[in-house]
Amino acid sequence: MPNRPAQSVGAYIHGVAPDEQRRLARLNDLLNPSCLDAVAPRVGERVLDVGSGPGIFSRLLSERLGPTGAVVGVDRSPEQIADATGRIAGAAADAGSARAPIEYRLGDAAEPPLEPTEFGTFDLAHCRFLLEHVTDPPAVVSAMANAVRPGGRVFLADDDHDLLRLWPRVESFDRLWSAYIEAYRAIGADPYIGRKLVALLHGAGCSPRRSGVIDFGACAGESRFEPLVENLIGIVLSARETIARLGLLGEEEFERAMADLRAWALLPDASLWYVVLFAEGIRRER
What span, in angstroms and rounded, lies between the C-alpha atoms of 183 and 258? Predict the structure, then answer.
């Protein structure tokens, strides 16, 4: 099947610069253990990982699946595919035979690059931090549902940016975060997609089975507080160009918000409250 550009995806607000790739790798380190437990992959399953990015989570899935399983990762970015493919090649010697084989394919999340005979054969379709960036989330979830067999699982995890709270409050950063949310909306993405995951599953022909949250926050004194703050800084810095281009926040106000955020992070009572939302559905017979 020919590779297609990701027509379902708007302008990815964070880009694929090296700094962004490093941020994603650090974010994986923070979230992957909890996310993997939530997905609960089973030995021998065939998994479609949509929006696989640098492939870090795909590799963790492959470890849980064992040699009788398989992972197909799909991403629209040639840079991400090249990075992910290089990572599995570099890790092959260490993996031995305990890991499921992984194949990465370049393509559109709404029209995944699968052979006709592959649709309806996967046991699990997974995506994380993808639906917030696409212009047509129902099309992506429907494609995932079509990829799994009847009774197969579709697992969605994503953000609802309205849930972020800092305390003590940082008013300048509140204004920056509002501009960040508005930038999503302006490019046709959905910053509130997390609250809609169950409805998306139902609309795609899946019976919702469970939903929940994965903790994405911390307070001063926790070992992961500083990395999570740095991730938050990286998130807004990577969107800076888009925010400026859209005229959502001036340069001086942006700089003030970043300085206030860094000062806030040094407070002994600082707390960052945030969660990743997830939902799982079972494909119904058709």
Answer: 17
